[in-house]
Write a structure and sequence with these properties.
Layout (H helix, E strand, L loop, with lengths): L6 E5 L5 E5 L5 E6 L3 H9 L4 E7 L5 H5 L7 E5 L5 H5 L9 E4 L3 H9 L3 E3 L2 H8 L4 E8 L1 H5 L5 E9 L2 E9 L3 H6 L3 E4 L8 E6 L5 H8 L2 E6 L2 E6 L10 E3 L2 E3 L2 E2 L38 H12 L19 H16 L2 E9 L2 E10 L7 H15 L10 H8 L1 H7 L6 H12 L21 E7 L20 H18 L9 E7 L7 H12 L4 E7 L12 E4 L5 H16 L11 E3 L22 H6 L4 E6 L27 H20 L1
Parallel strand pairs: 1-4, 1-6, 4-5, 6-7, 20-21, 20-22, 22-25, 23-24
Antiparallel strand pairs: 2-3, 8-10, 8-11, 9-10, 12-14, 12-17, 13-14, 15-16, 18-19, 19-21, 23-25
Helix pairs in contact: 1-5, 9-15, 9-19, 11-12, 12-13, 15-19, 17-19
Length: 675
């Protein structure tokens, strides 16, 4: 047992939990991810001091202590640039202090000061137990990889038929047991205190790819699948491959223990009737967008029109100051529509970023259960602080009745655990912002329909590009997606209180940096048990240079089970193209291989390359919709990819084309939300 470690500093981030914020940006609660409280209790058993550092919080420390009684001290820092200053008082014992953060930039800064930096509390516990954490690749069948209970999983992927690979962090004593079960364990040479693993799948080996990889620390190569270690000074985008002979999009890999949790199977919910005549579907047609309205939104979010009182933006890149203006503009637009926008915070690259989220809740006729839930919600909004317990517990018993309370709740729990137990029992789940008074409570049976896009942009394909200052308008990539999601949100508001399922409009940040925003968001949904029925991501639907008007729907995935669950969503969308003269029938990709090949029944080049991949990783049904980007059969019209992709010249769109796709998607989402 270790006796050297005296204290642990936790930099609160997405691997730890989520803060609840009120409309006034006040902290009104915290939701720890599953397993974190148990890990903290294990760490406390070593009699170490535990300090919590919270970013950008305006609350008093005294108030925050009620939500974090496990910690000896709470420190608030307003931005990462002053974090080192806040760490200075702890430098005298840095070599006996563990610092936990999922952000490699912050971990590296702490390591330079002498702290023992780790990416997750589980690694900290290994240190206290005098066990060395190793990042490993575990090779075996799909079932073998997914059944591994030891370790801290990051990612799993298919090498070839029935040969899969799990990337995980574990201690060496577990290796022999795994090997007895017939799997192969391979250590990777990565410094967990300063580096993150990045997954890249290239389309083909060429000189450009080789030159890019020479600049980085390559950990593993399995065919076209590569894992690279990046340090704090390296941008994830440095692993983008743009070229005439191939493309590769990096994925940032983070600790994801929830990845192996079971997921509800909504395949039957998404079942469709294959139909060639739209009129036989017996559904109304709705119009969410016109070419004029679509183009106006694209111009606002790509810098051709003013986005706020300060004028037009220059870029939406995460390192550019205009990224914050885009976040604010999206919240303003959603509020003006009458929705209840929230932000989902996460740390990345030494900065605090936000996804923007807004819900159109699924509502059914009032029931006794919903009435009880609403009364408890009002009570907990009145008393967000679980202490003192006398303020709210008697009222809870009056609302639910003593018989229900004694049958469902353990009364000897501490106030925080008791409050959480009651919330869970009545369905006040952390994946829905029920603590906000302005957000209508959905029915307990309502599932989630995700309609998403990414809000950031890049011009990384330019020969010289400085992301913190240079233009990256991203009109097609992905202001066209922003326009589609905002248009669908406005249209579906006409069906408020008429939908069975909640439609959640999501604008993900840092997609161009490795799908970061959607990854941490999908992880949160999975960890908190969110009932995701379908995820539809919209990425580049604005470029069209010919009269064919083809577009793509990607449902493919390396895991055939996930592909099969996603395919009905694609078919639902395709059904709504019937009778739309301005569009050709969509190309549905349903392959389980990423090879570049026009046979869409076998291959899908978009696997792992857009935000839908983050939902696939968690086992959710998902698709991404895009323009005619990938290679077609010789008998088909030639593919029509945007030549301005990831260039500062991404300034123009075909508004009629993008608007037509948006209207198809609006009808499909309405159908899914009514089922």
């Amino acid at each position: 047992m270790s006796t050297n470690i005296k204290s642990i500093i936790f930099l609160f981030d997405q691997s730890f939990g989520m803060l609840r914020f009120s409309e006034k940006s006040e902290v009104v609660g915290v939701d720890f991810l599953p397993g974190i409280i148990t890990l903290m209790e294990s760490l406390q058993s070593f009699n170490v001091e535990m300090f919590l550092f919270l970013p950008e919080v305006s609350e008093s420390v005294e108030n925050l202590k009620n939500y974090f009684p496990q910690f000896n001290r709470i420190v608030i820092y307003q931005n990462t640039s002053v974090l080192q200053q806040e760490l200075n008082p702890y430098l005298v014992r840095a070599n006996s202090t563990i610092l936990v953060s999922s952000d490699r930039v912050l971990r590296s800064s702490a390591a330079e000061l002498g702290f023992i930096s780790t990416p997750h509390p589980q690694v900290a516990l290994n240190i206290l137990n005098n066990k060395i954490s190793e990042m490993v690749l575990i090779f075996g069948s799909k079932e073998q990889c997914r059944s591994i209970s030891d370790g801290l999983p990051y990612f799993y992927y298919k090498i070839e038929d029935n040969r899969w690979c799990m990337l995980s962090v574990m201690v060496e004593e577990n290796f022999s047991e795994l090997q007895k079960n017939g799997v192969i364990v391979e250590k990777l040479s990565i410094d967990l205190s300063t580096e993150d693993p990045i997954f890249v799948e290239i389309e083909e080996w060429n000189k450009e790819t080789e030159e890019i990889l020479k600049k980085h620390k390559v950990l593993s190569i399995e065919g076209r699948k590569i894992i690279v270690a990046l340090g704090p000074a390296e941008l994830n985008e440095s692993l983008h491959v743009h070229g005439p002979n191939g493309h590769a999009h990096p994925q940032l890999l983070l600790p994801s223990p929830e990845m192996l949790y079971p997921v509800n199977d909504f395949r039957n919910d998404n079942k469709v009737v294959n139909n060639t005549d739209f009129s036989e579907l017996n559904m109304e047609k709705i119009t969410a967008s016109t070419p004029e309205s679509f183009e106006a939104i694209v111009k606002r979010y790509s810098g051709k029109l003013d986005i706020d009182h300060d004028g037009p933006i220059k870029s939406r890149h995460v390192l550019h100051p205009d990224n914050v203006r885009v976040i604010n503009a999206l919240q303003q637009d959603l509020s003006e529509l009458g929705l209840c926008p929230t932000v989902h915070r996460f740390n990345f690259n030494g900065i605090s970023l936000n996804n923007v989220i807004a819900d159109l809740p699924g509502i059914v006729p009032s029931s006794f259960e919903l009435n009880v839930k609403e009364k408890l919600r009002e009570l907990f909004q009145q008393y967000p602080n679980p202490m003192p317990i006398e303020n709210w517990l008697p009222s809870v018993k009056n609302i639910v009745g003593n018989e229900w309370f004694t049958s469902k709740i353990t009364n000897d729990a501490n106030p925080i655990a008791l409050r959480r137990s009651i919330e869970d029992s009545v369905g006040l789940s952390p994946w829905y912002p029920w603590w906000l008074q302005s957000c209508t409570l959905p029915d307990s049976e309502a599932k989630l329909i995700i309609v998403g896009c990414h809000l950031d942009s890049t011009a990384a394909n330019d020969s010289i590009y400085h992301p913190d200052s240079d233009p990256a308008p991203g009109a097609d990539d992905d202001a066209s997606g922003i326009a589609a999601v905002l248009s669908i949100a406005k249209c579906l508001l006409e069906y408020k209180e008429q939908l069975t399922h909640t439609v959640r409009f999501c604008f993900f940040n840092a997609e161009e940096s490795g799908l970061v925003g959607s990854k941490v968001y999908a992880s949160m949904l999975k960890a908190t048990g969110a009932p995701v029925k379908a995820a539809i991501c919209i990425d580049m639907i604005g470029f069209n240079s010919d009269q064919n008007h083809l577009f793509e729907i990607h449902a493919g995935h390396i895991d055939a089970d996930i592909r099969n669950a996603s395919l009905p969503i694609a078919q639902t969308i395709a059904n709504h193209v019937v009778g739309v003269p301005s569009l050709s029938p969509p190309q549905i990709y349903q392959g389980t291989s990423t090879d570049t090949n026009p046979d869409r029944t076998l291959f899908d080049g978009a696997i792992g390359r857009s935000d839908h991949a983050s939902f696939h990783q968690q086992g959710y049904p998902a698709v991404v919709v895009s323009e005619d980007f990938f290679i077609n059969f010789p008998s088909e019209p030639v593919d029509d990819p945007n030549p301005n992709y990831h260039h500062a010249s991404d300034l123009f769109i075909d508004a009629s084309y993008g608007s037509s796709i948006t209207n198809v998607l609006a009808n499909a989402v309405l159908e899914l939300a009514r089922k």
